[in-house]
Write a structure and sequence with these properties.
It is a single chain. The chain is mostly helical. The chain has a domain of 71 residues. 76% of the residues lie in helices and 0% in strands. It is built from 3 helices and no strands. The longest helix has 57 residues. It is rod-shaped.
């Protein structure tokens, strides 16, 4: 083991003890370290994929809401025009009822 590494680690452990912080050791070989890196990479890719899906759903529902609002506005405008054209304001009636000349 490199003496510089040993001195540095001893100084860091002493600093942690002095600050009253707990010390934990983790050890792994090169194969386990590589697997850990791959796992973190897989997790990162999965999180990015989920963020993309969530953004797509958000955009879909926001666009759907805008379309519904636009359609409701047009229905309201059409109802108002039909009311004006017939000169009658019927409560809870739809456009077809207002345009039907037989009622």
């Amino acid at each position: 083991m490199d003496s510089n590494y040993s001195e540095t680690s001893k100084a860091e452990f002493e600093k942690l003890r002095k600050d009253g912080k707990p010390i934990a050791f983790f050890a792994m070989d090169e194969k386990a370290y590589n697997a850990l890196g791959l796992n973190i990479s897989d997790i990162r890719a999965m999180v990015q994929q989920q963020q993309t899906i969530i953004d797509a759903y958000k955009q879909y529902y926001e666009n759907a809401e805008k379309q519904i609002d636009t359609a409701n506005k047009r229905i309201k405008e059409t109802n108002e025009k039909a009311d004006f054209a017939t000169g009658v304001r019927k409560q809870n009636s739809n456009v077809l009822d207002k345009l039907n000349p037989f009622k």
